[in-house]
Amino acid sequence: MDLRLLKKRFYERDPKIVARGLLGKKIVRRFGNISLEGLIIETEAYYGSKDPASRAFYGMKNYNKSMWGEPGSIFIYNVHNNWMFNIVAHEFRKVGAILIRALEPLKGIEVMKVNRGVGDLRLIASGPGRLSRALNIDKSLNNKTVTSDHSEIFIVDNNIEFDIGTSYRIGVKIDLDEKLRFFIKGNKYVSR
DNA sequence: CGCCAGATTGACT
DNA sequence: GTCAATCTGGCGG
C-alpha cells in the first residue's frame, strides 16, 4: 500500500481544483509485468451541462456515461483516432472530468518509445493522444478506477516545486470565459 | 447503412 | 502557419 496514493476524496472536488492538483503528480501504468511512469505536466478541466466544450454538454449517451461515474474513475473516448484519457472529478452529484494532456516520461521509457514509434523524449507523451499510445491506454480502461494501487492505472503524490501556467482550453470549438487549462510553467513537455 | 463531427496528430508550405 | 488522414460513435433514413 502506497501511502501517497490519491484516493476518491481527492477527485471529489471542483474539476478546476482537481486539474491544478494533478499537476506534478506521478501517474503509474501497469499491465502484465510492465510498469510505466510519468509526471503530469498539463491538464484541462471539463464540466457538465454548463460547459459547451464538454462531452457531457448534450446529456448522457452511451459513450459518455462514465463521466457521471464515481470521482476517480476513468472516462475515455476517441477523437480522430486518438484515445482521450480523462479522470472523472466532480463535487457530489455533479458532472466533470480532467483531461490529461501531457506527461514527462519517467520510467519504462524504452517501452514508451516502442509504443510511440519515436525516439525524441519530448514527442512521447506531450499531447493527449500521444500519451495514451505511450501508456497503452484505450477504451478497455473506460470506467475503471485509479484510486486503488491494484488498478491498471493509479496516481501518487509527489513532492516537487513548480509554477503553474493557465490558458484557455486547446482545440475546443466554444470555450467558457475562464481559463481551464493548467500546465507546469517552463516545462519542455507541455504540448504545443 | 451512409453521413458527419471531433477535447488530434504528423507532414508539409 | 496550413491541411488531410484516420476511426469511433451518434444520428437519420
Overall strand count:
8
**Beta-strand level of the residues, as a percent range?**
25-35%
Number of helices: 5
Oligomer: single chain
Cα gyration radius (Å): 15 Å
Extract low-pLDDT stretches: none
Mean pLDDT: 96
N-end to C-end Cα span: 36 Å
Q: Which structural class do the helices and strands define?
A: alpha+beta
Percent in helix: 10-25%
Order of helices and strands: HHEEEEEHHHEEE
Shape: globular
Largest β sheet strand count, sense and barrel closure? 8 strands, antiparallel
Give your account of this protein's structure.
- The chain has 192 residues and is an alpha+beta fold.
- Helix content is 16%, strand content 29%.
- The protein contains five helices and eight strands, in the order H-H-E-E-E-E-E-H-H-H-E-E-E.
- Strands 1, 2, 3, 4, 5, 6, 7 and 8 form an eight-stranded antiparallel sheet that branches.
- The longest helix has 8 residues.
- It binds a DNA duplex (13 and 13 nucleotides) through strand 3, strand 4 and helix 5.
